[in-house]
Amino acid sequence: MHRPAILFLTSGLSSFVEGDLRMLKASYPVRVVATGGGPTGNFGQRLSLVHSILSGVLRTDIVFAWFAHNHSYLAVMAVRLLRKKSLVVVGGYEVANEPEIGYGALLDPAMAGKVRYIIENADCILAVSEFSRREILAVAEPRRIETIYNGIDTSLFSPEGSKENIVLTVCLVSTANIRVKGLDTFMDAARQIPEARFVLISRALDGALEILKRDAPANVEFVGAVGQAELIGWYRRAKVYCQLSYRESFGVALAEAMSCECVPVVTDRGALPEVAGDTGFVVPYADTHVTADAISQALVADTGSAARKRICELFSREQREQELRRIIATLQL
C-alpha cells in the first residue's frame, strides 16, 4: 500500500505530541510545521507561517494536526480546496467553555467560530477521552469522530524499588491556574496529614510558586522543572499521585504516575475518573476534608499494581499507535 506523506502540524511539541510525531516518522514520510499557536508576530512572520502551512498541504497527502487552533483552521480550509485529507486531534481547551475560571477557546466568539469550522470540516476529529468526545459533539457535528486515548510508554514509566510515604502532584503552575489545578486543596490536605511528604513538581510561569510557598505547611516540598529521568524517579518513589483539577481532558501525568504504580486520588471532573477507574479514589473538586481522607486511605491502599494494569490495558503507547495507523489507512481509501 502507498505510504501517504503527512504534514504534522502543531502549536507546540509537548511530550505526548512528540510521541505521535516519533510514531509517524517511523512509518510515513513526514513534514513538520510547529506554529506556536497560529498567525502571530509581525506581518512577515505571519506570511511565512501561512506559506509553510500551504506549501506543506500541497506537498503531502494527509494533514495530522494537534489542537483545533488557528493553524488547523488554515490547514483544514486548504485541505478542502486541494482535496487532501485532514485529521485533527482536539486537546480539550479548544472545546472548553468555563467562564467561572476564564478557561476555554469558546469564550472567544471569533475562536469559537474557527473551532466549529474545524470540527465540521476535518475528515476526522480525534478525541483524547470520552469526556472530550462529548464536549466536541456539544460544539458541532463532525464528519467523523474517534476516541483514541493518549498513550503512555509503559516500559519507560514502570515501577522500580519500594514506595515511600510521598504524595505527589505534577503540573505547570501560574497565578491564574492555582485553583484550576487544585493546588490550594493539595496544600490544605497536606496540613491535615503532617506525617506524609507532599511534593509539587512544577515549572512556574510567573510568581505562582512564591504565592504557594508563603502559606505552605512544612511537609510540602517544591521541586522545580525536572527532566524525564528525575520525574520517573519521583513517580517510582511516590505512593500516591493527586490530580485535583477543576477539569482535565485526559491527564497525562496522572496516567504516567499510575503506570509507575502510584495510587491515584482525582477529582470527579473531566476525564480524570475515566483514567483512574476503580484503582484509586475520586473526590469532589475543592473538598479539602474528603480529599485529605482519600489521601490517607490511598497511603495504605494496595491498588498500585491495579493502577498500572489499567494503564497497560487501556492507555498504552502501542494501542495509540495501532489506532492512529488504522485511521490513517482509512483516510487513504
From TrEMBL:
Report a single Gene Ontology molecular function.
D-inositol-3-phosphate glycosyltransferase activity
Q: Keyword Transferase, does the record have it? A: yes
Q: Which PANTHER family match?
A: GLYCOSYLTRANSFERASE WBBK-RELATED
> In what residue span(s) does the Glycosyltransferase subfamily 4-like N-terminal domain sit?
45-155
Please provide the record's keywords in A-Z order.
Glycosyltransferase, Transferase
Q: Top EC class per UniProt? A: transferase
As recorded in UniProt, its EC number(s) are: 2.4.1.250
Statement: the UniProt record of this protein carries the keyword Transferase: yes
Q: Which InterPro entries match?
A: Glyco_trans_4-like_N
What CDD domains does the record point to? GT4_PimA-like
Task: Report the source organism.
Answer: Methanoculleus chikugoensis
Q: Which residues form the signal peptide?
A: none
Q: What is this protein called?
A: D-inositol 3-phosphate glycosyltransferase
Where on the tree of life does the source sit, at the highest rank? Archaea
